[in-house]
Amino acid sequence: MNERCNTTIDYDFDDGLRLERVSHIVPAAEGTENKLSNDGKIIQISPERIKELEVNPWLDINKDQKEKVIEQLRNPRYIRGLGSVGIEIALIGDPSAEELQAVYYGWGGAFRHPNAQREVVNMVYTNPDVAYMVMNGPGIGNSGMLPESVQKEIRQTGSYVSAGEYYAKVLEHVARDYDKVNVAGHSLGARVATGVAANMTPGAVSELRLHDPTGTREMSLVDIAVGFFGKEGAENGKYVKESASPTAKEAGLTPLTVEAPRLRDIEYAKGVQFSLEELDRPFEAPKNGWIQSLLVDPSGLKRNAFEGDLREAAPNVRKRIDILVPELSHLNKWEDIQTIVERVRSIPHIPEISQWDILRHTHANMNQPASLAAIYSADLE
After folding, report:
1. Tens digits of per-residue pLDDT, 76-100?
2. Can you spell out the DSSP letters for 196-230?
3. Fold entry, domain 17-377
4. pTM as predicted
């Protein structure tokens, strides 16, 4: 067992990123804490690599790549799917790639936002040989609202499986053009990604990668607010202060304009039947979009529902599932997630499930574009 001697937060990535694979929990003697046992595997992403990812995507030599990514975000696809719900997605990176990686944002994430632009520029720089799909969630941009019955289920149970059915139809529609499909998400996006995988055809998703998924234990709305906005908000400020990456303003990034699509630009998900009225319905931003982010998701995330969703998703994933947990996250405890993983591993006919602890980091590490890109591109096999 590796001993963890240094638990100070590495805001400047002086140690790079150290990912430690967790094997199981060894119960400790009464009155003491459980001990972490692992198989000894460490994946090290060097400090030099992180610094490169902070700086190089924004150099003049990579200006064309950056501008191409921003242009791809300016030209999203509008897909009407299950229940005639319209979902707005953007395909970035190499459009002719054989591999598609669907990445689902955390709470309130919008791909037109300057911070989201920074993230995808970094992802494409880090792995330019794949296509990435990013999605605006319900009520964000031009994406429509989920049915009230689905909103109610999220609020009452915390499960994102019913919501994932709507997103999965969109991903299946896009994935027809690719040989390999991976699904990933961070924070709330990890819950969305799990719900999507739970609704995909078995074997259609090759790999599922989840970065600090929420909803792993019961929390009050006050606990969520303190952990997310208070503690992790403060941690994010410290990360930003130490980062060599330009801010969105320094990089010349501004919010992209939301434009309602023309009727001829709307795509209709394959395998979904639509009425004539639905075919003529405008695709536009809902007026009550705030409901999902401010009422539905917070109510859902306070529920301990991740395990149930993972149980439904795991049999559909073909190759592997990786869950990455910042060691010092204010929203999760590695012990809680490891207990969940141990129980889910008992399901027959599922792929390998690994938990990786991100040493000396908090949930806010995912708000740093270089770190997020490095984690999504890391070889975890």
Report:
1. 999 999 999 999 999 999 989 999 9
2. HHHHSPTTSEEEEEEES-S-SS---HHHHHIIIII
3. Rossmann fold (3.40.50)
4. 0.93
